[in-house]
Amino acid sequence: xxxxxxxxxxxxxxxxxxxxxxxxxxxxxxxxxxxxxxxxxxxxxxxxxxxxxxxxxxxxxxxxxxxxxxxxxxxxxxxxxxxxxxxxxxxxxxxxxxxxxxxxxxxxxxxxxxxxxxxxxxxxxxxxxxxxxxxxxxxxxxxxxxxxxxxxxxxxxxxxxxxxxxxxxxxxxxxxxxxxxxxxxxxxxxxxxxxxxxxxxxxxxxxxxxxxxxxxxxxxxxxxxxxxxxxxxxxxxxxxxxxxxxxxxxxxxxxxxxxxxxxxxxxxxxxxxxxxxxxxxxxxxxxxxxxxxxxxxxxxxxxxxxxxxxxxxxxxxxxxxxxxxxxxxxxxxxxxxxxxxxxxxxxxxxxxxxxxxxxxxxxxxxxxxxxxxxxxxxxxxxxxxxxxxxxxxxxxxxxxxxxxxxxxxxxxxxxxxxxxxxxxxxxxxxxxxxxxxxxxxxxxxxxxxxxxxxxxxxxxxxxxxxxxxxxxxxxxxxxxxxxxxxxxxxxxxxxxx
Length: 497
Prior knowledge:
seven-stranded antiparallel sheet; Thrombin, subunit H; 4 domains; Pdz3 Domain; 11 helices
C-alpha cells in the first residue's frame, strides 16, 4: 500500500518536529539536572572553612571615665557599666574571630579566598571537609580585587583540588552551585542561576562581578561558584541585603579576572599589572558635547603622571581614550581592567579624541608601582579671615585668587595655580555639577586660569560663542577632574529667593 505524497511529506515533517523536540528535552535535561547530589559529592572535599583570630589592643575606644568626688555613687555606677561592656579603660586586649570560605586550587596546599576574610588576621586556620585542621600562611593578597592565596602543609595527604573554568562563557540563566561556610555551619551547597554579568558594585577599580540568586550568606565569602562541569567560574564575595542574610542578590569575582591575579600571587607574592600612569574620569553628555564628541563614550584623562608611560606616549590631560590595544572603551570603567590585563612591556595602540578629531598614539605598557602610603590627614587649622572674592555671574559661585591663608585653609598644594572656589549657592549650576568651596579651577575652556578675571573672561567668551557649557579643570586634595559647567544667562541683579 502506497502513501500519497502529500501525507508522506506531512509524516516526515512530523517526525522532524518530534526529533527536534526530543533534542530540546535532552538539552534541557542536561542543563537542569534532577539532582545536584553527584556534583556536590565530587566538589565538597575541595572547599574549606577558614577561621581567623585577631588581637584587638584597643577595643572600641571610648572617652575616659568622668571624674567624680571621692565616694560618689556615680563612680561605682560608671565603672560597673564599662566593665559590663568589656570596655574598661584598663581592659586587657581581646581576641576577635571571623569565619569565611576558600577552595583548594593545588593538591600541594594552595588555597584561594577573599582578602577581606583574612585581612588583619594574626592566625589563619583552615578546616578541610574531613574535619582536619591546618594552620595557613599568607602567600599574597590583592586588595584591588579582594583576593588572597593561602598555603597549608598537608604532609603526605594529597588534597582534592578544583580547576578554573571560562567565566566568559557563562550566560545569564546558566545553573551554578555555590559551596561555602555560611554562619560557620560548614560545607553548605546552594544552587541558582547566573542572574547578570559585568556588575559594578563600587567595590574596586576592576569591578566585573557575576550576579547570582544562589543563596550566599555571611561566611560564604571566598567560596567557589561552580558551573555544571565542576569548574570554578567565580569566587563568592559580596551580597546585597538589608538584614545581612541572603535575599537572592549575591556577587562573585569572575574566574577570568581572578585567575591571572592568583597566578601572580603564587609566583611573586604580589600582583603585577599593566600601567599607563593616568587618572581618568567618566564622561557625561555635557562633558562630551563641550569637547566636541557626538556620543558619550570613552575615558577622559584628568591627569597624566609626568614619568609614566602615558606621558612618554604623548597622552595629555583632556584627551578622551576611545580605544586601547584594539579594544573599544565604551565606558570609563573598562579601561583600567584592559590596561591591567595587558602584558607589561607591550606596545599598544591608543586612539584618543583631541581637538575635535581622533589621533593614534602608541604607548608601551609599564608595571603598576606599589601603592604609596596615604598621607596622614593634617589637623584642623584656625579659619583665616574672609578673602576678597569675585562672583562669576550666572554660575552660582564666587572665586578668589589663591592666597597663603586659603592654601592653609583648604590644604592647597604650593605648586597648584588657579583660582579657588570660595562660595557656592545651593541651587546654582556650580553646585549642580559638584563644585565645592576649596576646589581650585586651574583651566577654563582648556586655557589656564590664574586670576578671577581670567575665569570671568572665559565664561563671557563661551556665552558669546553660544556654548551651553564651559569645560573646567578642577583640582582639590582628593582628585583632579573635568567639569562641564552649565552657562545660565547672567542676570544683572540677583533675583528673590
